[in-house]
Protein 1
Amino acid sequence: MDLTEFNTLDPGTAVSVLRPALDVPRWIDDVVAHRPYASVPAALETARAAAHPFTDEEVQRALSHHPMIGQRAQGDSAEASLSRGEQAALGAGDDVVRAELARANLDYQEKFGHVFLIRAAGRSLPEILSEARRRTSNPPEDERREVAEQLREIAVLRLEGMLS
């Protein structure tokens, strides 16, 4: 879909189209309400602005749609399809790195109670592993901010992909 088509969708359809990018109703409603957009960068800027700040409840809702990094998303939902595409770009990777990432995921989840979330696009498996280890040492308050920032980045990248 291109920007012109997105701008002309009825509101209910536009909401459905945006939900896979980030399942946060307030964010979706804000992005839909500001249509029509003059350009893709204008739509992306609105999406970024609407994502500040996320509440803890919004973050938890969004996290429920994300698999552990390095694991294939299951199901045929649009969210699962996007996640599989994003993680496929990581490549097969070294078995040792994948095993270490699985351990880092579990350590992170044990500490914070949810999956480790990171924008996978443009990152290598070793970089993601390094970030998982670094972020596991974060205090909870700092990690909440990092997770929210990663959600913003993922949402904007997904929206950009939808409008390209």
Protein 2
Amino acid sequence: MKLQIIQDSKGKATGVYIPISEWKELKKQYKDLETLEYEEPTKEQILQELKEAVKELKLVEQGKLKARPAKELLDEL
């Protein structure tokens, strides 16, 4: 395996680069690795989530939905 160590400006190791072909092989061997991958949301997904957030906010303002504490919201992120 040909890994490259990523270092910050002080030479401290901060990450590892794995060539995509080797990453794919690792995912075949270890199925749980797929859960670590991040997929960029599409523009449509982002817009849909924003629309839902605005709906929820309006319901909170109308007293039809209870607001959540800010800490709970931030923890979700």
